[in-house]
UniProtKB/TrEMBL annotation, chains A, B, C, D:
Pfam families from the UniProt entry: ROK
SUPFAM superfamilies: Actin-like ATPase domain
The keyword Mitochondrion appears for this protein: no
Official protein name in the record: Glucokinase
InterPro entries: ATPase_NBD, ROK, ROK_cs
Gene source species: Nocardioides baekrokdamisoli
PANTHER family the UniProt entry points to: GLUCOKINASE, ROK (REPRESSOR, ORF, KINASE) FAMILY
Molecular function per GO: kinase activity
Protein keywords: Kinase, Transferase
Domain of life: Bacteria
Protein family (similarity comment): Belongs to the ROK (NagC/XylR) family.
Length: 332, 332, 332, 332
């Protein structure tokens, strides 16, 4: 790998590196957040020795650099990253355990490295270049199978004492409610996520109110367990009443939880990303209405906009690059 | 009023001024948070012309200063204060309406003035001199008839876009739950506040499980509507089973809501103040247990301590003085 | 008062007597349930000696009889009536306390007397001559400020061990929900009653979703506490969106509770009476939809019809007359 | 099979036949409810032709009769039985579908046959010979993986319009609560059943409040998914705090649901059977306390006793025999 050369104006190369559960994506990101060149690897898995995993990361970074000097690498890790951004404490699909990953990679590569978890990197992408750009305070909510989050206060991402802020998905919103994978019950992500969307639609397929009036029955071949979020999104856009009802119910829960967070943080904007957010206003309009209805003192304040994220699946790699760009700039 | 003289080391006079719904309290606060001298006035009311109200404030400040030069006045207002700390937007018991109170008082008095709402001033007191001193991140929760709050991130109180952050009491924790004075239902303060404590005890006075076994019946003279929080606290300390059950139920709800906030913020410490917190561990032990049980990834993080506030009813005036002290120091 | 003469075919005089909280209504009811002649008195109150109250009842009965022989009197009492139908155990607005009312009136008047509480008499009216006529099993649900009920199994009204069956309104449907006048919380009648309807509409008057779009604001003169159920019903029929939403929300809760009862009883029909039911399908259509959606094994059973009651405010007096007519017939 | 001979006093042979999901049990039951002789077969399954299944039933009955004349056979079927007791509408593990099972078996065997579903047969056993004997009104609640039930009013089991009364387990007690196998959410059986018990204990195994203080960790070999109800019952009896807490939580929910049913039915006694009830007062004491606390007008009525069932797994076969004994007696 090439060493870091004196930077010339406009020629800096910042690389984002997103290490997820199934794949490693490295990318050169330009100053506007576009992916210039990319390199992809399969995630080696959690039983592979750490050096081999880091070989894969090195290969991906080298492929993107293609011999050019690197100004810095930002690493987005699918796991818990400590408050200092130094260690991966735990990652379900990777071998790092309380591991000083950042400093070792920085030593190995000889370039500045910064590290954060993937949800926070997504928030960094929106803050630097996306839907939260220019704001002082924002909430980033990522809707996938569960809910991830990031917290921006006074213009900076805030990571908390343990690096674990933004776990919005596990606010309890229903006493004795749906059991959650976290071992408790009634967590917000059981009501406002991709899983919630699919569960709602599956449970209503046989309802006398919808039977023979919904295209979802056919979409899943009569097998409710085969029904997926994208099927529901497509049916919803085509006007299917059950699919739209599922987005309304999930969207209303989304808005109720956002109202809780806005009461606590009073941010300027709420950015909603993740796969489910692709449904757009089908999801966000009920969320906005529920936010207005559920927010304390709504008539005496400016209610934050609820906007879709700019970045989709590439949010992590873009935010990782933005993070190292900022870190290098801050060091002068 | 005396003008601000050149400061000599140790001779600075910072005055806190707490303008509440029923009284105005001015106090000289020393560097350790003790009240040195105080002056009290009755709050003139919301139909009195603004200049008359400000005359009362001026009198109270002058009485405390007693001719000495004033280095600054911090004003804690029982109402909404805008994000800039310049205007009182609305105060239920005072005539200010979208009023540039801070700058006008600064002009009138010729000394630096800073302003915030009373819940935030309580948080400032704990941050500067109390239970949150030395921490980078903390939540301040004030339990009175409802719940007030303050949010400390990276060592500073954060006030939000509208100056309305910290409205923790209106997180919805029960769908279709207790109606709240705010016009919605299921708000946290309906389950974890002084009002919740009293309501629980009242409703169980006639329960076959407690009748003739609780001293509360006698304490309220057989009239449940006469039962008060202090009666329940006293009975609880004396071992009354219904009173203790009331604190356990309210404490568990307190812990559940704290877990929601900790999941979102990941703070170092949670400070609980306000009148109900005088019950101490009778309230806080169930809250701590519920926090451990309800917090996501509890076993993989440092769980914040839940501690009683240092300051009681004088928290507002202490925090107001701390605020102006900091503001003057920051201006150099 | 005339004594009971040998009955001639078609000439029997059965009198219903409804002793409510504010008035006493006696009426001759014909075999089709029509009121032929009536007499009205003011309820004397609970501090008046029992004999004086019974004088008022006697006067009302005599006025209706007008010298004709009486075949029997049915008494509907606004209070708890014991399992045997002999005693009024407690009546909030009347002086009877564990009082053998039935036998004393029977002795005084020299005619057969039968007695039950008013909600059960309403159910008897519907069973004998109204919406439940000809059914073997039915639920009667009376929606007023709260919820009353009656239970018909195998063709007969069933009164339970204490004469207290049919207290459907106090099923708990929300854990830690709305406080109820009964001292507990989350009771069904807090969500599906006239009070629930009014509370919903009041709380939304200021919602940004409805303000300036609802006629209710004007109907109550801008004073939410002056808003009443009839105002909401009228606005709903005229198409007001907030009023209709209030009926939808209350109707859905009505249907959820009905589904609970149908799962337990499996009746043929559900009859909904009381003042709120005057709204008709505005209320009942959402209830029917929620019943279909909430009822276990809905697709494998005949779902009971949810129908409006035949009788309105006169249900008690009609049912009381039907009760004594049946009792006399049963004795041969 | 022997035909029905003229009955001699004391010599009648009534056979109960319980056709469950995994086995067929036939038994001669004496007048006191004891099993005199039994015969067991494996349930053939739902894809086997109906005649073959009925051959198995015939064999079991013949084995018990051993050549003696049979006075009648009572059949308890694990499925939906219609209101007339003539047809099995649906049985998940058997081939009957809207099948006139009773009359065909009666014709084949030449003896009187009566039929009901298994939960109702359990209630019949308790009514005839067990914990509800001598009562006019009772609720039978069977706690297994879910909740089954039976409804006794005025001395008789009441089966409802569709033969589906007693589905107490699917009352909705939590809005948006735990998803239920029935396709809805928040059903009572998700909170007060064997499944609820196991889920609670599993979810708390890793709680900081219990870890290293509970024997359940060892009982399940560190694998929460291996934890079973009997393990929890045993640990609870031995004083394990987590196991006892699980029974308390489930017992309280049991009591809340019983209170709902008692408010509606006002019965003399509530009988709790099924596997979970073997825990006895560990489960029933919290249920009794919650019933007292949750029941409307508890202080003005006789609260029904909550008692354990007399019969365990053999409740179905005993009740089936009692049913045919009564039916033959009624025919004279």
């Amino acid at each position: 790998m090439s060493r870091n050369h004196p930077r010339e104006h406009g020629s800096e190369l910042f690389i984002g590196l997103d290490v997820g559960g199934s794949k490693v994506l490295a990318a050169e990101i330009d100053a506007d957040g576009h992916l210039v060149t990319t390199a992809l690897r399969i995630t080696p898995g959690r039983r592979v020795p750490v050096p081999l995993v880091e070989d894969a990361l090195t290969e991906a970074v080298d492929e993107v650099a293609a011999g050019r000097p690197i100004s810095g690498v930002g690493l987005a890790a699918a796991g818990f990253v400590d408050a200092a951004g130094e260690r991966v404490m735990f990652a379900p699909h990777l071998p790092w355990r309380s591991d000083p990953t950042r400093s070792r990679l920085e030593a190995r590569w000889g370039v500045p490295v910064a590290m954060d978890n993937d949800a926070n990197c997504a928030a960094r992408a929106e803050l630097a270049l996306g839907a939260a750009a220019g704001t002082q305070s924002a909430l980033m909510i990522t809707l996938g199978t569960g809910i991830g989050g990031g917290l921006i206060v006074d213009g900076k991402l805030r990571r908390g004492r343990n690096g674990m802020s933004g776990e919005f998905g596990h606010m309890q919103v229903v006493p004795d409610g749906h059991p959650c994978e976290c071992g408790r019950a009634g967590c917000w992500e059981q009501y406002a996520s991709g899983n919630a969307l699919v569960r709602y639609a599956r449970s209503r397929l046989d309802s006398p109110s919808y039977t023979q009036q919904t295209s979802l029955e056919e979409a899943c071949g009569g097998l409710p367990e085969q029904l997926t979020g994208p099927m529901i999104a497509e049916a919803g856009r085509a006007g299917d009443r059950l699919a739209q009802r599922a987005f309304t119910v999930v969207g209303e829960w989304l808005g109720v939880g956002i109202a809780n967070l806005v009461a606590a943080f009073d941010p300027e904007v709420v950015v909603v990303g993740g796969g489910v957010s692709a449904a757009g206003d089908l999801l966000l309009d009920p969320a906005r209405a529920a936010l207005r209805d559920s927010l304390v003192a709504a008539s005496e304040r400016e209610i934050p906009d609820v906007v879709p994220a700019r970045f989709g699946p590439e949010a992590g790699v873009v935010g990782a690059a933005a993070m190292i760009r900022d870190a290098v700039a801050a060091r002068g």
